[in-house]
Structure formats: structure tokens, C-alpha cells
Here is the input.
Amino acid sequence: MAELDEIIHQPLRLRIMAALNALPVATGLEFARLKKLTGATDGNLGAHIETLARAGYVAVDKAFFGKKPQTTVTATAAGRGAFARHVATLQEIIAGKQP
Amino acid sequence: MIDSQQASAALNDINDVVQRVRQSRIYQNASLIIVMWGVLVFVGYLANFTWPPQGYTIWAVVDLIGIAGSIAIAAFSGIGPGAGAFALRLLVAFLLFIAFGIFCSAVLGHFGPRQMLVFWPLFTMLFYALAGLWFGYAFIVIALCSSALIVTAYFYAGPALLLWMAVVHGGALVLGGLWMRRI
Here is the structure.
């Protein structure tokens, strides 16, 4: 029986992973855009990205464009795999294959 | 473990975010094309104002650069594996658009220079509005605002129509494209 991924299952982290997973492989989202797409606040988003990064599900790239810092978050292969398994488990629960 | 209702809510949440990401990517890529066309037509109107006898040549060059640029942006926009096919469909759409526009304006309508000047941008805005029905309301807003400004220019700009068009058509596209990137 497949288990839900507890790291991804938290609502905001689920939205972050869904957003990153909707992009082509190796394409990331800038922090401000990710915040807008997920409806998160600055601090909240930063903390959840850190949790996902510690689990190896996302890669965080910090760069400077001129004097302006820009943080880009990208789903890793492990993150994409975990997200796919999590979605499959959700679908199994809906289909009644899981208790 | 969660029940099926909670699982269903989670999947709905995922679908909602995926939809937002797709919309955002469409706006990001389209805005580049729209801003590019805004700059091109702005330059085209000013060139046409400066060298009126060269009007057809100027607009042929503007259109060729615009079409090539649009296809290049579509092909290299990072849409993913379907980018090549999308760029090809865009090329076919441009060719059909131009053929139908020439048929209406030159064969059926015999438009004069002033009518030609507003027909093409209005015809373009019709496609923006149609695109908006599928790809997002921003296209419709840009089409409505630009069309209103173009029609106003046609009736009230008098001999300065080309300069008005540079500002209201080129300017509206640039501003609309930049606005699209922020939503």
C-alpha cells in the first residue's frame, strides 16, 4: 500500500510542488512568481521551500541581477518522482483502492 | 491517512495551481511577442510618416521582422517538447491571417491608405480578442483598449493619423504586454 508523502502533503508545499512540477524539466520559478501562483506570504513560502530543499525535492538557486537578488526554485528529479507518487496515492484513495 | 474527500480536495488544489502556472506561462511568452510588435509598429508608423511613398515596403519589412520574431520567441520560449509544432502552427496562422486580410482589404474592399492603416491593427485585435476567449482575459482587455484607441484615432486624428497610431497602437501594445507580465 502506497503512503502519502508527509513532506509534500502539507497544503502549501503541495501547491509549491504542483507549480514546479507543471514546468518543463529543469525549468524553475522565480520566488516572487511562485509566491503569487501559490498565494503564499514571503516568510511562509521561504520556510516551506527550505523544508522541500532539505528533503531534496527542490533546488534553490540564488543569483544577482545587477543589485537585485533573485531566487529561483526548481523541482529536482527526486521531487518530481515523489510528487508523481503522491498524486498517484491521492488518486488511489479516491478510487477506493486504499482504506 | 486521509479520506477520499480530502484526497479529492488536494487534487483540486493541484489542478488549480497547474492551471495558474499554464496561464502565467502563456502570458509571459505572449507578452514578449506583444511588446516586440508594439515597438515594431511604433517604428513602422514613424517611418511611414517620415517616408510616405515607402509605406508598403516599410510595412512589409515590419511584418516580416514581426513574424520571424514571433516564431523565434514561440520556438525558444521553453514551452517544452511541443514548441516546434506550436511555432509551425503560429506561422500557418500568420499566413492565413495575412492572406485573408489582403483579400478583404485589397480585393473585396479596395481600401484607401487611411482605411488600410486602421484595418490591419483592428483585424489583429480581433484575433487577440478571440485568443482571449481561450488563453485569458488579458488578451481581451488589450484588444478592446487598443481597438477603441485606433477607432478614435481614425475619426479624430486627421492628417496626424500616423503619429496617433504610433502612440495609441504601438504604445497600447507595449503597455499591454508589460501589464500582462505583471498579472
Summary: The two ends of chain A are 9 Å apart (CA to CA).
